[in-house]
Amino acid sequence: ESTAALAGLLKGAGNRFGIGTAYLPSISESKDKGGVIIGGASLWAINNGDESKQKAVWEFIKYMISPEQQVIWNSQSGYFPVTTKAYDLQSMQDHLKQFPQFKTAIDQLHGTALTEATKGGCVGVFQEARATVESEIEKMLQNKETPDQTIENAAKTINSAIENYNSNKK
Q1: Which of 15, 112, 133, 136 is a good FRET partner for 126, with 20 to 30 A between their CA atoms?
Q2: pLDDT at 3 over 80
Q3: What is the 3-state secondary structure (H, E, C) of 92-104?
């Protein structure tokens, strides 16, 4: 599950049972052979030409990325703070001390070496590729496809989508 669900999981468990967290496993002990990447929700601002709306949006973004709001964002959801200054605040340090489950993913991400594999991808067909991978894995888990068929079908569908995307972006 995503760290974005962590606050809800902890709230749902209450005092009835504990919720533990752990690092995602790696295929190698070597830090240059893998790691974790950040993903998830995004906040977008579109320029529609209305200067007063642009100024209001900018004020809202500045408010949302302030360290104080990022502590609330993290503690109420589990999403990572987008500014490292949030970690300097006593409220964040207290939160992580009280709920160390939030610290697990943060520590793993901060301990991940920057490599080509961990810098994150930029794919014009990301949503389609993600949906394809999810769909193909589901078929494999339901024994409708073999692992080899899953990889072959996902690669074929995604490569076709990338070719189509690239041909329309020239």
Answers
A1: 112
A2: yes
A3: HHHHHHHCCHHHH
